[in-house]
């Protein structure tokens, strides 16, 4: 089957808070932008019944309501949406390709905001109670709604124990299912000791989840003792799973740099190891995974994408233009020597205005154009002819040095 090819400035993979924010920034910059989401626009946040820590909502808001507003805002700026699964990507070269079952989407920029998914227990009936029906994955999000209630925490790593202790500020009782022997946990020693001394926490050692029970909402979790196979029924109002998180990065393995757990590695500009490819949100290796931090990532990625495309336009239409030989002065506005050379560059430009095209590139905010030209020290001059680099001069003291780049 021949796949339909569509072209965009930016393709965003994922539809959560980071993806939608990046799309909003790109759409507002009048970039032709497509968001590809395989299931539900809004991501995991849509399953959170109440969000009380997102700024600007003193009375709180629902995850679905908040993400719906993000979605509407993106569409307001002309962002297009496709509900489908990405099968493969080709991210090398100036034009990237994102392939789905029916289409190949070409783009100058790809933003990976595919998020992740909490690791599940695999116990019976688990799928019936996920997210807003009793099984949660975020104590920060859902602690207040469990005030004076009984909750079960599954796991014993740092996240499980620290989030469990946080829940004790609200819940009447926090029961913790630990698969290890009495007193043994996977968390750090400080958290372990504090948890063992917390009067609201009750530990069920050598247990794993056997099944989840309830009608419309979770009311009981049956634990199984891994040594005796005894079933231990626990009546609960909610259950929090903290047994790990799985980033949605499978199709990017071997292409984009990741850590050992599969989270993408970026710099502060959300840039990956491939030019024109950015990553944002929970898919990144980061300290905190929340809607607020996803929005921050998305804003940076969207802004960086717009700057990357602007630099690409300058690079192709001006710097690498074939109509005239070119001289590119690469400088840093905060460097004194760079500033002192500006009058010399201006004088050279006036002298040869009909014979050479002069471009000044300030790297103070971005080294993108300098990187494309292979320049890492500043000031520097790059001479071009017929759309190719012909000379790089790193020692510049006078107008003769500038002319040497042209002659």
What descriptive keywords fit this protein?
FAD/NAD(P)-binding domain; 10 helices; five-stranded parallel sheet; Thioredoxin reductase (NADPH); alpha/beta; 407 residues
- Outline the low-pLDDT stretches: none
Please tally the β strands and state the result: 21
- CA-to-CA gap between the ends? 55 Å
The CATH topology of the largest domain is what?
FAD/NAD(P)-binding domain
Helix/strand-derived category reads alpha/beta
SS strand fraction: 25-35%
What's the story with the biggest beta sheet?
A: 7 strands, mixed
Average pLDDT, rounded to a whole number, is 94
Name given to the CATH homologous superfamily of the largest domain: FAD/NAD(P)-binding domain
**Count the helices. How many?**
10
Give the total of domains. Answer: 3
**Shape descriptor:** elongated
Helix fraction?
Answer: 25-40%
Can you describe this structure?
With 407 residues, the chain is an alpha/beta fold. It has ten helices and 21 strands. Strands 1, 2, 3, 4, 5, 6 and 17 form a seven-stranded mixed beta sheet that branches. It has a five-stranded parallel beta sheet with strand order 8-15-9-10-11, with helices on one face. A hairpin with a 5-residue loop joins strand 4 (88-90) and strand 5 (96-99). Helix 1 runs parallel beside helix 2 (63-76) and helix 4 (158-167) packs parallel to helix 5 (189-196). The longest helix is centred in the C-terminal third of the chain and has 29 residues, at 291-319. The radius of gyration is 27 Å and the shape is elongated. It starts with a strand and ends with a helix.
């Amino acid at each position: 089957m021949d796949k339909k090819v569509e072209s965009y400035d930016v393709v965003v993979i994922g539809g959560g808070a980071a993806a939608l924010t990046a799309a909003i920034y790109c759409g507002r910059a009048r970039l032709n932008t497509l968001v590809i989401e395989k299931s539900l626009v809004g991501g995991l946040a849509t399953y959170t019944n109440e969000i009380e820590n997102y700024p600007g909502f003193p009375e709180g808001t629902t995850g679905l309501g908040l993400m719906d507003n993000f979605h509407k805002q993106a569409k307001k700026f002309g962002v297009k949406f496709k509900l489908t699964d990405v099968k493969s990507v080709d991210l090398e070269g100036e034009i990237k390709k994102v392939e789905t079952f029916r289409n190949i989407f070409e783009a100058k920029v790809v933003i990976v905001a595919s998020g992740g998914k909490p690791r599940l227990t695999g116990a019976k009936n688990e799928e019936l109670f996920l997210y807003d029906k009793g099984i949660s994955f975020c104590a920060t999000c859902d602690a207040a709604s469990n005030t004076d209630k009984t909750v079960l925490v599954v796991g014993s790593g740092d996240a499980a124990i620290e989030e469990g202790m946080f829940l004790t500020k609200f819940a009447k009782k926090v029961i913790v299912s630990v698969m290890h022997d009495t007193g043994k946990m996977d968390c750090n020693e400080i958290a372990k000791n504090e948890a063992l001394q917390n009067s609201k926490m009750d530990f069920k050692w050598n247990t794993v989840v056997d099944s989840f029970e309830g009608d419309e909402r979770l009311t009981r979790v049956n634990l199984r003792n891994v040594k005796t196979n005894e079933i231990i029924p626990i009546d609960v109002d909610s259950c929090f799973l903290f047994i790990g998180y799985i980033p949605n990065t499978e199709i990017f393995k071997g292409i984009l740099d990741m850590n050992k757990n599969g989270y993408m590695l970026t710099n502060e500009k959300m840039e990956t190891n491939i030019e024109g490819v950015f990553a944002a949100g929970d898919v990144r290796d980061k300290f905190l995974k929340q809607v607020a931090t996803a929005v921050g990532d998305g804003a940076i990625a969207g802004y960086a994408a717009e700057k990357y495309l602007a630099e690409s336009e300058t690079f192709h239409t001006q710097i690498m233009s074939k109509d005239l030989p070119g001289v590119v002065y690469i400088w840093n506005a905060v460097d004194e020597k760079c500033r002192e050379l500006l009058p010399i560059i201006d004088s050279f430009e006036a002298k040869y205005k009909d014979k050479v095209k002069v471009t000044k590139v300030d790297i103070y905010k971005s080294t993108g154009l300098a990187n494309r030209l292979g320049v890492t020290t500043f000031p520097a001059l790059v001479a071009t002819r017929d759309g190719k680099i012909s000379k790089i001069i790193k020692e510049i003291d006078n107008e003769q040095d500038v002319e040497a780049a042209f002659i």
